[in-house]
Amino acid sequence: MLKYIFKNSITSFHLLSRYQISIDKIRNFCIIAHIDHGKSTLADRFLEITGTISKGKHEQYLDKLEVEKERGITVKAQSAAMLYKVDGIEQYLYNLIDTPGHVDFTYEVSRSMRACEGAILLIDATQGIQAQTLSNYILAKKQNLKIIPVINKIDMTSANTETVIQQLVEKFDMNPNEIFKVSAKKGTGVTELLNNIVTLIPPPQDHKELKCFLIDSWYARDKGVVLLMLMKGGILKKGDQILSCAFKKKYDVFEVGIQSPENVPQEKLEPGQVGQQMRPEQEIHLEIPLSKTLAEAGFEQVKPLVYCGIYPEDPDDYAELNKSIFKLALTDPAVIIQKESSAALGNGYRCGFLGVLHMDVFRERLENEYNLSVILTSPSVPYKAILRNGKEVLVENAIMAPDAAVIKHYEQPMAMATIMCPEEYSATIFQLCDARNGRIVDQEKYDKQDRYIFKFPLNEIIQDLFDKIKSATKGYGSLEYEFCGFEKANIVKLVIHLMDDPVDALSFMVPEERAHQLGKKICQRLKDNIPQHLFVVSIQAKVGGKVIAAEKIGSTGKNVTAKCYGGDYTRKKKLLDRQKEGKKRMREVGRVTVRKDTFISVFKDD
Ligand SMILES: Nc1nc2c(ncn2[C@@H]2O[C@H](COP(=O)(O)OP(=O)(O)OP(=O)(O)O)[C@@H](O)[C@H]2O)c(=O)[nH]1
Fold first, then answer.
1. Coil, strand or helix at 102
2. Which terminal residue of the chain has fewer beta carbons within 10 Å of its beta carbon, N or C?
3. Which residues form the Tr-type G domain (predicted)?
């Protein structure tokens, strides 16, 4: 213990005792809302008013990831401990969790809620109740959280505060006198809200025996694995040994601390506190992603909606990808990871995500935070195969699809999509949606915006609908979607063959009407990218053994050493050496030799 005190400055020694507050003076709460309704801005004001960060210096302080700063959205729930003198009198410890608003990161929200007794439900005064307001409200109710309704952005000229109050009264049966009105940006009403949290949200309970609730985990280069936990009971100190109930493994606690908002080392963590504990890297079991740990701990199993393969661009980077992907998965419980190996792409992973944004953010984090270049195969959705014997099989990967003879029919995942756009773009939106099998379900006018609800096959949404809407509306249109069950559909398995050998990485489950177009596109791209061989290379796209598109690459008819007649050994060796060098960049797929980047070109966007 002495060693530890010497290592830290006097200030941190002073800080050590500041957070040791009795459990009745602790409040754990999260901020929940629809995307962009102002959660991170409100969290900034809280941090400033409580003196946790200095005023005006930071914007969106808790959006720490590069991808969050670049995109201006929260993708990770972040927590911060704040010491606050309520009404300037009595000191409390507020543990705040800022949550993401986008539906792809809902899993982060529900996990955060499990660590709280209350939630601030924030509603944008210019937009009113939106899809995620409703689903977050339902989630919070289910978890018996005390909900504090707060209308934000009341400073805006387009604010409809009274209408939103009315909506809250009608839809959520709220008492109009209990609704707070704030401007998170300007700070109006925020201190009043902070002062009321203490009476509106109850303190956590002490479960007496040592019990920690895992909120988050991540890998820190200097510390190893960091676990962010709510202390449900007991005391945790540096040097303690803990046992994971899920995996029956022992771990040494390397250091404990509190996020306020960065890590402040502590002597111990006590009941009700949200704190970190670190474990050295050699002790971690990277093969156990957080999703699995949470599932073992009784959390709802994540059900991915979008799958893709992730491969290193250079196959020699596989070991690096292996380490990085599990480190990243430590911070993301909603990603499902399975090893996969493909003759065409080498060793990699099949990953499941909650949506395309989730997939895209995961890729960007692998590239930004782990400096890796990866290939993502085109996203696909899981299909349900209804078998003739009455059983159901979820087909997440085309190569796992049951034999066509045993399948009665397929069902495809559907999504309810909300599209908002200025009224002048309505006709374009209808054309776009029609071409993607979207069926209109509902529509309404909202200010000068049109709001449409379409039902789509999920597969149609994940391809490019978002980009197409953005470009067709000069960036003003928006798209949000939510899975809404399976429906019967004509789905076929499209397999690309090279010289009659099926290529595993190029097998796709597709709606029947799209099979020909996709098959043709892939055959053409392979033709453009595969070099000539001594023989004619045949490329075929097949559905159920029937060829639906095909290309041929003519032969060179030449042997590279053929011209080195006679005994000119050095020339022949040089040529063979050059050939060997070239071979390093090539890969064998059946009898065909392809450049390593051939399959990247197939998966690249148009
Ligand atoms: N005028 C005004 N703008 C606000 C207010 N609160 C937030 N904003 C703005 O609204 C936008 C979204 O705010 P954020 O705090 O990022 O919203 P969020 O809910 O955290 O967003 P996600 O985490 O991505 O869901 C930003 O441009 C903010 O500056 C407010 O009270 N008044």
1. coil
2. C
3. 24-205
